[in-house]
Amino acid sequence: MNHNTPLPLRHLADRTRPRVMTLAQLREHGVSAAEAAERPWQQILPGVFLLHSGPATSEERLHAVLLYAGRRGGEVMITGLAALALYGFRSAPPLLALQHIDVLVPSTRRLRSAGCARLVRTPHPPRSTEVTGLPVAPVARAVADAVAQLGDAGTVRRLLSEAVRAGHCEPGAVVRELTVARLLNRPHVVDAVESLLAEGRAIAEDRLYQLVRTYRLPDPVWNVDLRVPGGPHLGSVDAYWPDHAVAVEIDTRAPRQGEDEQWSQAVRKREALEQLGVTVLHITPRKLRDHAEQQAAVVRTALTAAGDREPAGYLVVLPR
Fold first, then answer.
1. What integer pLDDT is reported at residue 13 of this predicted model?
2. In whole numbers, what is the pLDDT of the chain averaged over residues?
3. Which of the four CATH numbers 3.40.960, 2.40.30, 1.20.58, 3.90.1310 does domain 216-319 have?
């Protein structure tokens, strides 16, 4: 082949596109492996060439990793810290600072980690999200894959906190992924999760407060314990309307060790309150965030229906 003859690679003229191709793609353009080796190109990963001699951009590294992993069928996607950087996490390092780019692949894929591509295997690939034209794992899954590689408690706490505080996902989604990844046996992860759940609850409580104000619901008493006079403690609720016997609980339970007991306790509390004529509404943080108007209508309906029910048994309301 005459090296003075322009290669039939039209996209190389477009400097705005990542100039990365697999050997198979080069062959489709009439370039053999031997000819590729003679060019001033770099084999950035096995079978993947960077079609210029300078350093790879962050976008080219991402494309190279996806090409190496055999991107097809929506089952291969960027995850871990690289994914969080693409989502705009301030607590994640910039892409060019990452030594490895994690890529999620089906567990059946016969391929090994190489160079900057670190493979993370899963038997059930999630549905990817497109970010800057690239397939990226959902935030909660990307956080779990990042945490799996991190031993620094401060970094883990910052990542989890930003995931919730910036509205990327709910605490329960993160905890589910950490549970599946079997990361809750690491003390620094457990500590970060405790902080995450506390912060998630505080955010949800504020949303509930804003819901009552925005949709002009009657003022409840906030964060109270309910008791039978001279009897047992029935449980705590986030908001309670004594004149209507309506209670709201923010459901922040997440699948963790001992969830069966947590669930049993919640059911027992709800049954005890309902037997005394109290309507108990469970609202998730996600519904408070995404469907506030709908949840306000649910609460308003319960308050309106209070006049059609038998009066509730007298309860003692105490600050939590």
1. 46
2. 88
3. 3.40.960
